[in-house]
Specification:
43% of the residues lie in helices and 19% in strands. By secondary structure, it is α/β, with parallel strands linked by helices.
Length: 322
């Protein structure tokens, strides 16, 4: 009988803890939601944030405001969310730099991504493409590698702090090529110089120079996805060409650490339903929309952080963020 009373007390205690969690999910959201985008208005991250915000408002019955907080390699906006109340009313659209900043910026990062933020779900990915000047003779990666043994081959990128720039460095590391990586301050000048022939290759996302590729002003000889990209069906992956290079720019949704698990679960379900809507990617065809569980997204971030920190440290890559 005494054992039965102890068991009953334990069950009641567990139920007492479960009730607030259930209530938190049922009452969520209790007010307007703010989605922080750590980039200026108008870019792809901002567009995805606003698309998501509009759909969330429809489903959750509360206003959703997108707040742009750019600066300091996304750290200003990210830190604002880290310091927010963990009630699910302040969320962050994070991108790949969240996993590369720890390696690039070291102790300048004022938070620990994996401890101070709670993953909700992946939102989208977009691979990196090796574009070429239209007059560049090699038509595949192996021809380019052979040429680089005898002639200088210059490769432009938007900068070391971008997934495209880091993909270029990983390519150089994997292939041991003599091709020269020239990191620019942004995608626009890198694209202009490749169009003009000052550089022979351009490392950029499938979004960055798609219009130039579509207009046959640039070629393309490789894509870093595991499968061919729908907008680049004739461009083989690096894997197809015998090069072990798979990278992706990614976008995901996170909340402050300590946000109730029931709220995280409700957000995950809501966003998964949104990203599964027919035609949701209209106008965003370069992006591969898709969601994950919070656990899967957390594991992905941890793995990405480990991969890029290791490469950055080993190659001694540095960026100027002063």
């Amino acid at each position: 009988m005494k054992a039965m009373k102890i068991l009953s007390a334990a069950i009641l205690a567990g139920s007492a803890f479960a009730v607030p969690a259930i209530q938190a999910a049922e009452s969520y959201p209790s007010g307007p939601i703010t989605i922080v985008v750590p980039f200026p208005p108008g870019g792809s991250v901002d567009q995805i944030g606003r698309l998501l915000g509009n759909k969330m408002a429809e489903r959750l019955g509360q206003p959703v405001v997108v707040e742009n907080r750019p600066g300091a390699a996304t750290m200003i906006g990210t830190n604002a969310v880290v310091r927010s109340k963990p009630d699910g009313l302040t969320l962050l659209v994070a991108v790949s730099s969240a996993a590369t900043n720890p390696g690039l910026l070291k102790d300048k990062v004022p938070y620990n991504l994996q401890k101070d933020l709670a993953p909700i779900t992946m939102l989208a990915t977009v691979p990196v493409v090796a574009y070429t000047n239209i007059d560049f003779t090699p038509k595949n990666i192996n021809e380019m590698l052979e040429l680089a043994k005898t002639k200088p081959v210059n490769m432009a990128s938007p900068g070391y702090g971008t997934m495209a720039g880091l993909s270029a460095e990983m390519f150089r590391d994997v292939t041991k090529t003599e091709a020269i990586h020239i990191p620019y301050n942004g995608g626009a000048p890198a694209t202009v110089d490749t169009l003009a022939g000052h550089t022979q290759l351009l490392w950029g996302t499938a979004v960055q120079a798609y219009e130039q590729y579509k207009g046959k002003k640039l070629g393309a000889i490789g894509v870093t996805s595991t499968e061919r990209h729908p907008l680049y069906p004739d461009v083989p992956t690096f894997k197809e060409q015998g090069i072990d290079l798979v990278t992706t720019e990614w976008y995901g949704l996170l909340a402050p650490a300590g946000t109730p698990e029931s709220v995280i679960a409700k957000l995950n379900t809501t966003v998964t339903e949104i990203m599964s809507e027919p035609g949701i990617n209209k106008g965003y065809e370069a992006f591969i929309f898709g969601t994950t569980t919070p656990e899967e997204f957390g594991s992905f971030i941890a793995k990405e952080t480990e991969i890029w920190t290791s490469l950055i440290d080993r190659l001694g890559i540095k960026v100027d963020n002063s």
